[in-house]
Amino acid sequence: MTAGHVLEATDFSAAPSPGRTAARAGAPGPGRYGDGMADPSVPSVPPAPRAPVAQDEVARICAELIRFDTTNRGFGDAEGERAAAEYVAGLLDEVGIEPELFESAPGRASVVARIPGADPARPALVVHGHLDVVPARADDWTVPPFAGEVIDGVVWGRGAVDMKDMDAMVLAVVRQMAREGRRPARDVVLAMFADEEAGGPLGSGWAAEHRPDLFEGATEAISEVGGYSVEVGGRRAYLLQTAEKGLVWLRLVAEGRAGHGSQVNEDNAVTLLAEAVARIGRHRWPMTLTPTVRRLLEGVADLVGRPFDPDDEAGVEELVAALGPAARFVGATLRHTANPTRLDAGYLSNVIPGSAEATVDGRFLPGREAEFDATIRELAGPHVRVEDRWRDIGPAAPLDTPFLDAMADALLAEDPGAAVLPYMLSAGTDNKALAKIGIAGYGFVPLRLPQGYDFPAMFHGADERVPIESLLFGCRVLDRLLTDC
Questions:
Q1: Which of 53, 143, 407, 444 has the smallest C-beta neighbourhood within 10 Å, fewest atoms?
Q2: Domain membership flag for residue 317
Q3: Is residue 47 pLDDT above 80, yes or no?
């Protein structure tokens, strides 16, 4: 990238030095010589440089994080996480925050640091992000995905919203607090994990299982995919994530009789598998509104001036549509989902294989995992075996807590008149791993976005980007939250 596209640090100017501009005692007029000129016999004192604050460096940190290619292809195939973790550790160490960097496997590095709070008797708060990203095909992008370019006030690159934006905001805020000698209201456990994009077994999952001491005394956590703004009924609303759907990646296996492609075969594994995949993919799951989704829809109904009837499926769909681009996230939380994603069978066109496999991405509602599993087995049928490739929980954090109020207060202090609504994420985050050790997780990446900005489309999509003004807003909100919560 060219130098003109790099966001450099602001040129800081200090407050006027008394030795430079103030009139000496007994001096007539603005200066001793009456013409505003300083006494030439007194040497000038250069202004002391102002220490950078969060808003000075957040975009730079975000861009620099993007330049680490931390692509995670899943199943142990990843790169760049160690280098990114060392960069994060350096940023913390630079301001006197002692980081611990550890690996779950060679190169799979995470960083954790505990920042003492003003009241050590209170439960700690975990503030966590992840350093890995999904793959990016450069041919699909307008700019190189790992260049970290800043163009017209927008940071571009893979990870700009998932989730090196939050990583940068958190790092910038805690660096400013450390420079200024300010403590958060309670202990903060700052964590930057590896491997989130593959479900976290080598990142948050490993840390929760092997290093639970790092999170001692923590009861709540914040991380990605919540706190961003949408327009609802002409009013800005922030969606605060309080629940996630559960996740299961399923392998479907059909076994039949192998044979020549020219022969009649009533026990064709490909046919058996295809029928099962079609039944699962076309199944219309019934609408089931969880407490989080119900609370969200009640809030949307108030904003748009429509009634809310939980039994009126068409009316519910209209309320979801009122969320604009965010409807993609929210619409999938009205019910279970199961989407076939891969097929694998055969090796020659004239050979009927003895087995065939498919992969299904399943997302179940919190507390309804058994119901989902039973339906999948029924749809697969007696001739198709269903196996787990990966499974994780669907956590749901409390909806009525002082901490939830503190997040809403921090948002509204920077954007008075907005609304704050809870919602469930149809995907998953590292909050799943922390929930297993008793930590309630929320999605809170505070971003005030331009009207009409298709934020959900940025996740795992081409031309991922985030406005710098949104990052600056997020820094102010996070500073308030850490100071007051």
A1: 143
A2: no
A3: no
